[in-house]
Amino acid sequence: MLKLIKTEVQYEDTLARVYELMQLDLQPDTKESDELEILSMLVKKYEEEHYPVPEPTPLEAIKYKMEQMKISDAELSEILGARSRKSEILSGKRKLSLSMIRALKERLNISADILIQLY
């Protein structure tokens, strides 16, 4: 019987069942595949409530996107406007300006909500 996960024990039991179902070669639109999908949603809801993942700082987001998109330091300097600004930004000595936030949002697709956070 499917129901909301309210305790850590229920969470662990549900995870065990999810892993069990994941080991099977499930076909779409079967009872088991539907169960896996629903249990995954329940696990996600429980994890969001009990194990929230904090948003990254602006610097963490920039560094992550640079790595993910294989952006070089020179390319980041171009986005930010100058090499010295890039090193000051990445070391935390200088805050992002509005024009830098706009450029990072457009070029690296980083949410403005993340970029405007205090750090």
TrEMBL record:
Gene Ontology biological-process annotations: regulation of DNA-templated transcription
Chain ranges of the HTH cro/C1-type domain: 62-115
GO MF entries: core promoter sequence-specific DNA binding
Transmembrane segments: none
PANTHER family xrefs: ANTITOXIN HIGA
Name of the molecule in the record: XRE family transcriptional regulator
Organism: Flavobacterium rivuli WB 3.3-2 = DSM 21788
